[in-house]
From TrEMBL, chains A, B, C, D:
<feature type="domain" description="HD">
    <location>
        <begin position="61"/>
        <end position="178"/>
    </location>
</feature>
<dbReference type="Pfam" id="PF19276">
    <property type="entry name" value="HD_assoc_2"/>
</dbReference>
<dbReference type="GO" id="GO:0008832">
    <property type="term" value="F:dGTPase activity"/>
</dbReference>
<dbReference type="GO" id="GO:0006203">
    <property type="term" value="P:dGTP catabolic process"/>
</dbReference>
<dbReference type="InterPro" id="IPR045509">
    <property type="entry name" value="HD_assoc_2"/>
</dbReference>
<dbReference type="Pfam" id="PF01966">
    <property type="entry name" value="HD"/>
</dbReference>
<dbReference type="InterPro" id="IPR050135">
    <property type="entry name" value="dGTPase-like"/>
</dbReference>
<dbReference type="InterPro" id="IPR006674">
    <property type="entry name" value="HD_domain"/>
</dbReference>
<dbReference type="InterPro" id="IPR003607">
    <property type="entry name" value="HD/PDEase_dom"/>
</dbReference>
<protein>
    <submittedName>
        <fullName>Putative dGTPase</fullName>
    </submittedName>
</protein>
Amino acid sequence: MEYATQKLAEEKVFKDPVHRYIHVQDQLIWDLIATKEFQRLRRIKQLGTTYLVFHGAEHSRFSHSLGVYEIVRRMVDDVFVNRPEWDKSERLVALCAGLLHDLGHGPFSHAFEHVFDLDHEQFTRRIILGNTEVNEVLSRVSDQFPQKVSEVIAKTYPNKQVVSLISSQIDADRMDYLQRDAYFTGVSYGHFDMERILRVMRPQPDQIVIKSTGMHAIEDYIMSRYQMYWQVYFHPVSRSAEVILKKTLERAKFLYKDGYDFKISIDHFTSFFEGNVKLADYIALDESIIMAYFQFWTKEEDAILRDLSTRFLNRKLFKFTDVDPAKDWEKLVQLEKLFDEAGLDPNYYLVMDSSSDLPYDFYRPGEEGERVPIYLQLPNKDLSELSRSSDIVDAISGKRRTDHKLYYPKDLLDVNNPIHERIIAILDA
Amino acid sequence: MEYATQKLAEEKVFKDPVHRYIHVQDQLIWDLIATKEFQRLRRIKQLGTTYLVFHGAEHSRFSHSLGVYEIVRRMVDDVFVNRPEWDKSERLVALCAGLLHDLGHGPFSHAFEHVFDLDHEQFTRRIILGNTEVNEVLSRVSDQFPQKVSEVIAKTYPNKQVVSLISSQIDADRMDYLQRDAYFTGVSYGHFDMERILRVMRPQPDQIVIKSTGMHAIEDYIMSRYQMYWQVYFHPVSRSAEVILKKTLERAKFLYKDGYDFKISIDHFTSFFEGNVKLADYIALDESIIMAYFQFWTKEEDAILRDLSTRFLNRKLFKFTDVDPAKDWEKLVQLEKLFDEAGLDPNYYLVMDSSSDLPYDFYRPGEEGERVPIYLQLPNKDLSELSRSSDIVDAISGKRRTDHKLYYPKDLLDVNNPIHERIIAILDA
Amino acid sequence: MEYATQKLAEEKVFKDPVHRYIHVQDQLIWDLIATKEFQRLRRIKQLGTTYLVFHGAEHSRFSHSLGVYEIVRRMVDDVFVNRPEWDKSERLVALCAGLLHDLGHGPFSHAFEHVFDLDHEQFTRRIILGNTEVNEVLSRVSDQFPQKVSEVIAKTYPNKQVVSLISSQIDADRMDYLQRDAYFTGVSYGHFDMERILRVMRPQPDQIVIKSTGMHAIEDYIMSRYQMYWQVYFHPVSRSAEVILKKTLERAKFLYKDGYDFKISIDHFTSFFEGNVKLADYIALDESIIMAYFQFWTKEEDAILRDLSTRFLNRKLFKFTDVDPAKDWEKLVQLEKLFDEAGLDPNYYLVMDSSSDLPYDFYRPGEEGERVPIYLQLPNKDLSELSRSSDIVDAISGKRRTDHKLYYPKDLLDVNNPIHERIIAILDA
Amino acid sequence: MEYATQKLAEEKVFKDPVHRYIHVQDQLIWDLIATKEFQRLRRIKQLGTTYLVFHGAEHSRFSHSLGVYEIVRRMVDDVFVNRPEWDKSERLVALCAGLLHDLGHGPFSHAFEHVFDLDHEQFTRRIILGNTEVNEVLSRVSDQFPQKVSEVIAKTYPNKQVVSLISSQIDADRMDYLQRDAYFTGVSYGHFDMERILRVMRPQPDQIVIKSTGMHAIEDYIMSRYQMYWQVYFHPVSRSAEVILKKTLERAKFLYKDGYDFKISIDHFTSFFEGNVKLADYIALDESIIMAYFQFWTKEEDAILRDLSTRFLNRKLFKFTDVDPAKDWEKLVQLEKLFDEAGLDPNYYLVMDSSSDLPYDFYRPGEEGERVPIYLQLPNKDLSELSRSSDIVDAISGKRRTDHKLYYPKDLLDVNNPIHERIIAILDA
């Protein structure tokens, strides 16, 4: 029998707290889940440093990836299956793209990419197309199949309907992570009526639109996003942990470049420090490796590396204060000088962080480079962009709230030290 | 102000998916949570290898410890506070014992203790009484305070009421983990009416008893335990992962003793292999270190160490078959011989595992060495042991179901190899 | 187009708190729901007098009937559809039987049937086969169709597979009411994993069996039943309300027979008092009519009718004491005499009620006249009756707990009256 | 002991699906719940005709009233108890006002008040101050106590803090009904983090303000209100049922005034038709009486009364079309004429209904006669009105969406009748 159409003897299920069960009927999906590259996602947390604020947020990208797959499966098998606008031959590529869309994420993904100037989407592509177990499984379908899956994830696939299932303003990716992150953090937002949204989705030639009777369910979804962003994803304390994480890695890289002699060999990091990352090195670097190295570094000679890694492990975070770079410019210059004078290297101990650096965005129809906006399909079949119909969505879309914070180690500042005293006076002002 | 009675300026809360919020009012509790020994519990999963079967079960002992603390807090602050049988001066020692009861757990606790012949309760004691941040904080209350907390956890504390809050057939520990493990795995059992159980708890001179009107809520709780044990805790596939974990560690230990030359230094393990574990070594060894070493070992020369560690990381588990050691004795001997002949070392590749080895038990009133049974307080104030009043509890208590399974690497057996063929024939019989 | 296969232009849904949505695709189902006989079920509570104890239990048989339909729909459309053992031509008759199985329930069904010696199953049949809107709709399918639906509900239908979907130890009826009653009362039992149970159901020639891997889910379901019975359905206080309800109706009937002159005409009750109930009279008598008459009766001359109806409306219930008719026989005789002496007619004010009179039962395999027991299908396809495989089920099945209670109006007893004093002494003993 | 401070021997609880348990410690509260006027609320649905659209919405004002009491109890006993700004002597009057605030609601409250020009708030006052069981119980506290409770509900009580617990933009009333109505309808909005809102409430001299850190929880609550209004409370189909209900009552009143001879005496309605309602008549008229009369009226000679009452009972509702009275003025005049010509009395069969007639409103700070807006308390203790800080709230507050619908009996229009044909043409345009 052809591999593409091969079904498991009996449907398998994974118990999932968000979707109750994840259903697998295809041999291909089963085999992909068993690959070592997919299993690796168990060792990468979905929300990076957020677990240091919301202690329940210890869930991995593995769970999320299964969840995205399940939502795509429900779309194609339950909702679209009998609609003529949907091309059934795209079923398998859609399922695989949903399952594998996060495959290239590194440990503490965002901080990590930032320090080493990497792009997880590129690594997803390299894993799918490279010499990997995932590639071997996908190739059993056909020689072109890995390329097709990769294109869906890269949004270059010709059939935009398929792309939009995974990457649009209301895709399976976002619908899973909002619900999942809400479940594991325990917050009360993040809930919306996905059943209803699925029921009102209508495939169109190059996108998925929403029957206008479902507008309120979509409003609720957009609001969930909005609340999750401000309450969870942009939480200033988890950003503090991320600042320390980045600075630790930057310090290690600096020391390496500087010829510093590490006590324990830093083999796993060498190619990252050199800016010349091989695929195997990338796949090998998961969060347990990072955390192990951080433990090693708590024993290093270098005081900054030791301090920062210890802070991260033991959650001795930096405090923060709101800052407006435009207005507070002089203050910042002055603080840098004072930190230098106080022997606190400002490169590591006085850090500005802006929420707009984070990989989340609100609903912003019309901005160039943005995802396709959400269209409502009116009873007369005309399309209307969501924020034109909804007051609520209009109110929150397109507004990029500036949120700059200055992070610093308050515990190191001593009121009895005159320089520190001046620093404190400026920060508390 | 005395440290013991010092309150935070404003109550602090942790968002918790199980109890909604964890409430902290005492400076002491706040300071304990901030210690590095308590933060370390974030790096130890609550359910060991279970996440390889129930992918949601990625939660840590950190979350669970906060949950136990919160239940104890509700008992002493909301339920017992106005009952004359409860000694209010025990409040703080009870809260600390609840919070710290799992402090000494090692990575993948049960497997780890087994291989290195360690006892997590002893390490909890050593952390509380030793040269640690936790000890430093507890000692601020009084010189004797760490000792008192340690005794409650060791069940040797004179006031058995306090002990029973943490360690009895219906204690804060079990009430938290059943609900928490159910929440994170997503299974539908594990739920019971804790609100009602708290309301019907009655402190007695040396234990906590249950008002008999609450019997059905208790039955429900006992049933939850029963279902969680068979469905989650004893799940044969997570036991397969545990078997591989143990065997990997055993192989590493064997190689070390044998003078094997590890490519990457195994400093973190030396004292464990030597059977001479220092407190600092113990605290340093968390699950990220274990997982990092397992990755290192996938590159080792030794074929067994390499194979086993790779299996664990990539979830290539052993298959299993039910076995009755009494009846199948000859078969087992024969299999050992055949494995030897086939070049598969039976010490690592043919492993019997019994559920009764696991650190869970059912409700078994009356067995020596067991926890105090649950007593119902009848309207006339007489006490009646639960299984005498409840048919359901009677039905499931005291029955130790034997469950032996034989684990082996089915993927290594080749039907075309005659020895393998004989092995397969025996295993499939 | 044939009516039987006519689909709605677009699927319609009802929002349902238990199943999220009830899905309707068939014109026939849509038309049945719109009949006046089905709409009448909105005016009959699912749990009779239980709302006087669990205030949330105000839900109607209308909701429950939709729920049973939905579960049958999921069985036949999602689970059985591709199994050769299932005869697809039975789909429609199964859906209709699920929807209509409770159609003949009268107001406060059990008490009502008891007083007037009626049988709701017979009235279900009469409504389906008689001159009604429901019959008119069903007949559009075919002349024989109403008869077929009626036979499924009466359990006389030849295809026992179909019967067992609605009436067996684990049917759609029970699966809906356990979950629904738990939801509306707010109790914490009543939950079980219906998704999993549906997945492990296997149609067999004359019944539905359960794949043995689903045993624990079934145990959980049986336990839910057990807990719901003792905690909700047999609650002694809602039985007190039922006692008063029955006695009020009995008094009204007695007065009618006795030629009493009612202030407001009792037209709606005449044929019930005469024992000669016409279908139209039956359909007209819903709970709003009963409650209205009870209000009318609070203004009647007859002291007993006035007192009892006022008690019911204002929830001034009888108190109760446990009684063992075998042992307490003499006491009961004595109490009757004393009530007579005290001017409290014991026919109305001293009432024994036994839980075994209630229309619920536990799991009792093997008793004659009982529903077919639950069979597990072992891996070798043999069948094994559930209580043989499950210790828990074995423990609670077949045990008929005797629960007799004596109800009386404690508020009418005056400690200063010597006869009352003697009554109180006996009751409190 | 003084009645006001009398506690129950043991706390009593009601199981509640929304708040888990309702806790009662005061003898006074227990006695109020047992009065016949409070028990009457069991016979009045919380959401009037909404159950004809959301079948789960069969819950009563009894449940809601207990829920409001419970929220007030949590505010005063858990949250405010140790805040100096809160006057503890107001505890009891606050609890009673919360419990009794809806006491005067009539059956299908809004429609009923409209037809008979009544005001439920006035009847709440009359029940509390009149010759009732409720008044008798309240008077046990002190002669002035009923008056005080009545003033809190009437918002004329001097201490505005107390008033605002029951009647403000974020009071116990709204927090209960949003959650409760969401629970019983089963919709996915209506959820917000009440625990957090309670925690950030701060009593001020004449109102309750919100700590600004809780802004997002308040936004979520405002959004819940918004969604519940448009999705549930203003649902066009339940408004259709309400239109028919009103028109039935209007027809009965018209016939009475006209000297029509009713078959069954309409005693219960006489004083309502006369516009001269006595308290006892009001209390006697609950929804079971209304529904019983509707059944009686399905047998009346008058064709309009018969048709309308039958429609309501059997849910044969009117259809509707959107209409803009300003623009469609001529069309409406024309339709009226055509309905007259067609023999369909437009007073009963062509009805315009506007959502702004409904007793719900959005958050509208600043409009005269409106409730006090929500104030955030900034870290510097300044107050800031919510919509100034929140983009979302600003977007939806103050916008009164016009929603006019024209209801008519589509089923009575016959395409083959030329007049009907013209009507249909206009309505479909």
